[in-house]
Amino acid sequence: MKIQKKMANTALIFAMVLLIASCSGTPVKFDQPASATPGQQYDMSHGRTATGQACGFQLLLLIPIVTNQRAAMAYQSLKSQAGNGYLTDIRVQETWTYAFVGTLYCTVMEGTIYPPTQS
Question: Most exposed of 35, 42, 92, 100 (fewest Cβ within 10 Å)?
């Protein structure tokens, strides 16, 4: 009986560790596009605003569906809009909406893109 209880406790601890480890998000490093060269000049008077968004769903508050990668996906969307422009002033907003069977989590990133000057 003691062995069964010890095995059940070990299995429960293993399941909890596995559940906690699976809930880690992807870190996002804000960097400039590869096409931006050092010393390149940008037209700071013609900035435009761009927005990138990604959402994920937490089913039954236990099963993550694309929730951990949503910040990285929103940043990739924002970076692709920047092209070879200078992306700056990035603002991050997290929202969530309760649904009957889970929760919808969204990440919205908004930034200003300045185009390179024409030589």
Answer: 100
